[in-house]
Amino acid sequence: MTEHTSHEIDVEKLETSKINAVNFDNLTFGRTFTDHMFICDFENDEWQTPRIIPYQAMTMEPSARVFHYGQAVFEGMKAYKDKDGKVWLFRPEDNYNRINKSAARLAMPEFPKDYFFKGLTKLLQIDSAWVKPGKGNSLYIRPFIIATDPAISASPSSNYRFMIICSPAKAYYTDKIKVLVAEKYSRSASGGVGFAKAAGNYAAQFYPTSLAQKRGFQQVIWTDAATHERLEEAGTMNVFFRINDTLITAPISDRILDGVTRRSIIQLAEDNGITVDVRPITVVELKEASRNGSLKEIFGAGTAAVISPISAFEHGEELFELPNIENSYADSLKDNMLNIQHNLTEDKHGWRYGI
Amino acid sequence: MTEHTSHEIDVEKLETSKINAVNFDNLTFGRTFTDHMFICDFENDEWQTPRIIPYQAMTMEPSARVFHYGQAVFEGMKAYKDKDGKVWLFRPEDNYNRINKSAARLAMPEFPKDYFFKGLTKLLQIDSAWVKPGKGNSLYIRPFIIATDPAISASPSSNYRFMIICSPAKAYYTDKIKVLVAEKYSRSASGGVGFAKAAGNYAAQFYPTSLAQKRGFQQVIWTDAATHERLEEAGTMNVFFRINDTLITAPISDRILDGVTRRSIIQLAEDNGITVDVRPITVVELKEASRNGSLKEIFGAGTAAVISPISAFEHGEELFELPNIENSYADSLKDNMLNIQHNLTEDKHGWRYGI
Questions:
Q1: C-alpha A332: how far from its chain's center?
Q2: Which neighbouring-strand residues pair with A165?
Q3: Mutant choice from A67, A159, A223, A227 vs B, greatest count of B C-beta within 10 A
Q4: Which of A96, A318, B178, B179 has the most beta carbons within 10 angstroms of its beta carbon?
Q5: Domain coordinates of chain B in residue numbers?
């Protein structure tokens, strides 16, 4: 059945929801998708009528540029359901702005704000049963844009597809993680696309990360490609370092993703009277702080993981273990974030967005 | 119709070739594809039975990792037809080795040599009418591997698809081109994936290249990301500089593609008594050589373009024009390359591979 909504989105609903076949207590991150998806194609220099249709495979030409030149950008967002059954997003405008920033760097057209918010809202209304209440539950939302032009010359596509797919999620990393500080491999170059959520940034990390994983580390903390001296980000997360009672995180640059969680953590820390120092931090300083006992915590911050406490890092074949501390910033800031996201506390910065 | 060949490739032929609908005098690079394509899927930890089927669109899950994380690598090769109607490849073993080197860096499985050569040979035999004789005509061949696993966690795919598609081609750049030397943007980082034909390397260049194109330059010559002082490559081509009678090209590194054309040009230059200096070359040296008249030529070298003479470069808002010279190395080396590729001259290095 097809109905025209007042938002001019064509909606075709699935006859029978697949939700009863899903075990929500046993979800693998990013493998289960909701009943519907949002699609909007860019053709003839404009975005066409957006559609919401049943989640399904799609037809692609083998020559589509996304397969050959990685012209693709994405976002990661989450929806939360409060105890009254209302669904909330967290700072969606930041994701909207960033996907267009990413798109611009990859020579792709901006997606209209109106379509983004109306599409997202309508999709979440239709699939709201997939957002489970309770802290730890969320619906992971993946907007993305891919180049669909069937031509293999190495130049920007004429045609694109914007999509939103949604996947019910539990916590991403459940235990504390150990990380390896990069000494040889790099994530991004100055003047490159590291600040963008460009698809190719992620595949480039898989191999060095797999080497780290074989040695028992879950993630790599990337350092600057030129010197490997400055700590930058962890690929799926920004990174915070607590030395004494100050929280330090690297400034954003064209190599580092401007994370929504990072930005929120900085604000919440300041709200809670924690000094935040946004400045370059070196491997030398980190190791010295670990040796003299002033390094109290390291944690990652990102939409998928929210906050991931780190238990140890390795550099120069030396393992540095973090102390187990009471009143950790990671725990209190994570709790603070989740309470705002799940509508359990005041939202004084206006970060929640009701569906 | 499906037939099993002795190579254990399943072959399904198109009933009626599309070739009569193609105007071979008016081809846009990479938009027209031959009647068939080669497909081999990686599932359950192994490459499945390869297939040759009619060229067609394919079904992909929206969650396929290639769309989200750019886990994709490719190669560019060409087939040539001699006056006796025999089809030749040029150093295909180099492309085979490189796609696996690229795949390894992106945490993708190696493709078996047997499948690569048998698949390529059979596909070119079936579609041999698409390879037109004569210098300037060729069949561009695009092997590529994409991550097909329907899961959006940021980790390597379990499933992949290897494909070969083919597109009849004329010369890529027909006129001399003007290039801009990069001062702000970068192509790759030390420790990154610049040496690999990774999909994401190309999308990352589209925006800075489009800025250059708006100002009348066809390509960018990338410099090292750390200092922007050393000349590296042009994104779709390696670059050669002739100062007096010496040909200079940057050494390969983890930032620079190890081009098959580059390697062949170095050999052919040496065969012809031209001194080749493989060493870092700086922007300062290039500008100085241009000013004092010792800079005679710059040209790009790559499979798509073969050799592309460059007429001018800009750096620091200053335009440096190359002289028009007789007996250019670009012209003689290009002629030499084409004669070998088209079986018009002796192949003393054993570069030709007959189909």
A1: 21
A2: A142
A3: A67
A4: B179
A5: 2-169, 177-341
Amino acid at B122: K
List the one residue out of B69, B83, B77 whose CA is nearest residue B97: B77
The tokens of A22 are what?
């899903």
Using a CB–CB cutoff of 8 Å, tell me whether B100 touches chain A. no
Chain A residues 77-96 with a CB less than 8 Å from chain B: none
Residue B107, chain A, CB below 8 Å: the answer is: yes
Coil, strand or helix: which one is B261? helix
What rounded mean pLDDT belongs to chain A? 95
Q: How far is B93 from chain A (nearest CA, A)?
A: 21
Band of the pLDDT at A5, cuts 50, 70, 90? very low
- Does the CB of A186 have a partner CB in chain B at under 8 Å? yes
CA-nearest of A152, A157, A69 to A107 is A157
Q: What is the mean pLDDT of residues B65-74?
A: 98
Tokens of B75: 């190669």
Q: Residue A203: which of B63, B151, B200 has the nearest Cβ?
A: B200
DSSP H/E element including A330: helix A329-341
| Pair type for strands A51-54 and B77-81 | unpaired
DSSP for A88-155, written as a single string: EEESHHHHHHHHHHHHHHTT-PPPPHHHHHHHHHHHHHHTGGGS-BSTT-EEEEEEEEEE--B--SSS
Which residues, in sequence order, are bridge partners of residue A223? A231
Helix (H) or strand (E) holding B267: helix B260-271
Average pLDDT over residues A222-237: 95
Spatial CA neighbour of B139 closest among B165, B119, B164, B169: B169
A291, with CB counted inside 10 A (0-12, 13-18, 19+), is exposed
Give the pLDDT band (50/70/90) at residue B6: very low
Listed residue (A127, A99, A110) closest to A257, CA to CA? A99
CATH number for the domain whose boundaries are B2-169: 3.30.470.10
Cβ burial A26-65 (10 Å sphere, 16+ → b, else e): ebebbebbbbbbbbbbbeeeebeebbbbebeebebbbbbb
| pLDDT, tens digit (0-9, with 9 covering 90-100), for A250-303 | 999 999 999 999 999 999 999 999 999 999 999 999 999 999 999 999 999 999
Our CA-based measurement puts residue A140 at a distance from the nearest CA of chain B, in whole angstroms, of: 10
Contact of B268 with B341, CB cutoff 8 Å: no
Residue B173: what residue type?
Answer: Y
Q: CA of A196: which chain B residue's CA is closest?
A: B204
Question: What architecture is domain B177-341?
Answer: Alpha-Beta Barrel (3.20)
Task: Considering only CA atoms, give the Rg of chain B.
Answer: 21
Q: Decide: helix, strand or coil at residue B126.
A: helix
Q: Does residue A119 sit at the B interface (CB-CB below 8 Å)?
A: no
pLDDT of residue B5: 45
Q: What is the pLDDT of residues A172-224, one digit of tens each?
A: 656 889 999 999 999 999 999 999 999 999 999 999 999 999 999 999 999 99
Q: What ipTM goes with this model? A: 0.96
Of B37, B59, B191, the CB nearest to A225: B191
Q: What average pLDDT score do residues B34-56 get? A: 98
Could you tell me the CA-to-CA distances from A199 to A17, A326, B113 in Å, in that order? 31, 38, 28
Cα–Cα distance, A253 to A234 (Å, whole number): 14
Q: Do A62 and B61 touch (CB under 8 A)?
A: no
Q: Is-contact B107 B177, C-beta < 8 A?
A: no
Phi, psi for residue A164 in degrees, rounded to 5:
-130, 125
Chain A positions touching B163 (Cβ under 8 A) are: 62
Separation CA A283–CA A261 (nearest Å): 23
Contact in structure between B295 and B241 (CB atoms under 8 Å): yes
Residue A314 is encoded by which pair of tokens? 């390795």
DSSP state, residue A324: P
